[in-house]
Amino acid sequence: MIESELRSLKLRFGIIGNSDLLNHAITVAMQVAPTDMSVLITGESGSGKESFSKIIHHLSPRKHNQFIAINCGSIPEGTIDSELFGHEKGAFTGAHDARKGYFEVTNGGTIFLDEIGEMPLATQARLLRVLENGEFLKVGSSKVQKTDVRVVAATNVNLTKSVENSKFREDLYYRLSTVPIYVPPLRERGDDIELLFRKFASDFSERYRVKPITLTEDGKKLLLKYRFPGNIRQLKNIVEQISVLSTDDKIISSEKLAKYLPNQNSSLPALYKGEDKESLSERDLLYKVLFDMKKDMNDLKKFVLDVMQDDTAKKDIIADNSSLFENLEATKPVEKTISDEPVLLNIASSDESGYTEEEAIDIQDISHEMEEEESLSLEKKEKELIIKALNKNNNKRKYAAKDLGISERTLYRKIKQYELEDK
């Protein structure tokens, strides 16, 4: 019975695939649809989350009322409250007339809030009130209004991390995720990838009146092996490209398919969605180097802290890890013999029974000195990279900046900072 309902539902909403993860997600949507419970749909961008919101609405008692899909990430922060909850005339500059918001217009229906993780914190507080009491205030009004709207939300970011970083309200997160639905990415759906490829090939063949493309066996293997970071949307675009551009040979081998698949082996550092959106140029070059050096420095600080706090074990610890101290700059370098090997320690002086009050180095001072050393190391590395880029591009700063991944303005500032004008 459930299998026949699944087939019928897939046909109705144009869902292609038979993977267990996909079927489980559809089954959960079917089960929760008749209720009024809030639903949080999670999954990567392009995985088809909006289809699940439509399933929930059309199988619910609200199916004859309005359904509205809203992308929270596409509405400017200054206007999102007005869009969702409406505003009164004169509430702000440009508000020449009163306006109804989506929660008022959709009373009795369903609102799908896509990219809920992009919603501003102030708007999140308003949304929480709607979910808990069915109440809202228009912008510029003190009159409480009632609405009966079911909220289905979706996100492609990790909301638990957003909660930890104070970018998403914890109470709203738990209120939204009464029933969570996970939409699997394309790479986790196995043979569904080939089914979708054939469906898209057939659709584009009909649209452009060309012979449908087909895959060879090695082409199928490559297709199934590819990770598809853009999921279904990316696969559809690739099939459309091949359908249009392959005018002669419609049989696609792995070699031919590879030309349309973007290379995923890039090792360049990248900014991730949800992180601080400050531009790369203002963070001064090469995140990967910075992160690796920071981790190494933190590990060393922790080790030194353990040594300084443990009198009984510090000699053995230092002896076993003497190589860690080889490149440390000392305030007053002293060779202290432990066992048979001399070890360079960053201390003023010592005796075999331990450090005296006058000779002991404060742990906070050590951390401060290490941070200064880390900063100097990064500056040295940065200067070397800039010199290499300038030499490579015959001192053409425009191309050097492009190689470094920074703006020309930042490069000019760095050249002046490091006195490289004559390089």
| Largest sheet entry | 5 strands, parallel
Number of helices: 17
Order of helices and strands: HHEHEHHEHEEEHHEHEHHEHHHEEHHH
Beta percentage is: 5-15%
Structural class: alpha/beta
Q: Give the spatial strand order of the biggest sheet.
A: 2-3-6-1-7
What is the CA-based Rg, rounded? 30 Å
Helix content: 40-55%
Report, as a whole number of angstroms, the end-to-end distance: 76 Å
Low-confidence runs: 266-285, 329-364
Q: Whole-number average pLDDT?
A: 81
Please tell me what the overall shape is.
globular
Question: Can you offer a commentary on this structure?
Answer:
The protein has 423 residues and is α/β, with parallel strands linked by helices. It has 17 helices and eleven strands. It has helices at residues 2-13, 20-32, 49-58, 80-85, 102-105, 121-133, 159-164, 170-176, 192-208, 217-225, 231-245, 254-258, 287-309, 314-320, 363-392, 397-404, 408-417, and strands at residues 39-42, 67-71, 110-114, 135-137, 144-146, 150-155, 179-182, 214-215, 251-252, 334-338, 341-345.
